[in-house]
Amino acid sequence: MNFLAYQTLATTVFHKMPITLKFLFSTGADTTVRVMNDANSQLFSFFFNRQPTAVVFDPNNDIVLKTATLSVGLNNTSSIIPSRFAVYQNYPNPFNPTTNIKFEIPKNTFVTLKVYDVVGKEVATLINEERNAGSYNVDWNASFYPSGVYFYSFKAGNFTETKRMLLIK
């Protein structure tokens, strides 16, 4: 899960400050994390052994003026519209336990990104929704999966591509 902290300021001075995030889960206890925002456009990455269902920015209302945009596990990395459909090799590969998959779509379309084991059984659905044109990164946390070869299949519009990845624990 990634969180990008960005300040829009009337002055040119950046305000260093702590930020509190509360991660909500469908099972088990919620997790509250406090990080120090040292620089503008600072990216914080968090890894959990389960997928958060929601994230609350500044749950105690410590920040007077705020606007936050959150995405859990999926990040649009650029405002530039790509010229073609593309899915890239995951990185790192081999990996343990988390890897990142980057893809690009040149127009708004329905996107699916699924992970399969070596015998072709679907083990995870990372994306199954309409997406706006852009470049994206998706994290897959394979903490609960055994070592081995996996395949990810990306479908967007009429474009389909499958790639191989290796989980080593």
Structure, explained:
The chain is an all-beta fold and 169 residues long. The chain has two domains: 2-72; 75-167, Sandwich (Immunoglobulin-like). Helix content is 0%, strand content 51%. A four-stranded antiparallel beta sheet has the order 6-11-8-7, with no helix packed on it. The chain starts with a strand and ends with a strand. The model is unreliable at 67-72 (pLDDT under 50).
Summarize the structure.
By secondary structure, the chain is mostly beta strands. It has strands at residues 2-5, 17-24, 31-37, 42-45, 54-57, 74-78, 86-87, 98-105, 109-117, 122-131, 134-141, 148-156, 159-167. It folds into two domains: 2-72; 75-167, Macroglobulin (MG2) domain (Immunoglobulin-like, Sandwich), CATH 2.60.40.1930.
Indicate the overall shape. globular
Strand order of the largest sheet: 6-11-8-7
Give the CATH level 1 class of the largest domain.
Mainly Beta
Secondary-structure element series: EEEEEEEEEEEEE
Strand content: over 45%
So, the CATH homologous superfamily of the largest domain? Macroglobulin (MG2) domain
CATH topology assignment of the largest domain: Immunoglobulin-like
Number of strands: 13
Secondary structure category: mainly beta
Rg, nearest Å: 18 Å
List the helices and strands and how they pair.
Layout: E1 2-5, E2 17-24, E3 31-37, E4 42-45, E5 54-57, E6 74-78, E7 86-87, E8 98-105, E9 109-117, E10 122-131, E11 134-141, E12 148-156, E13 159-167
Antiparallel strand pairs: 1-4, 2-3, 2-5, 6-11, 7-8, 8-11, 9-10, 9-12, 12-13
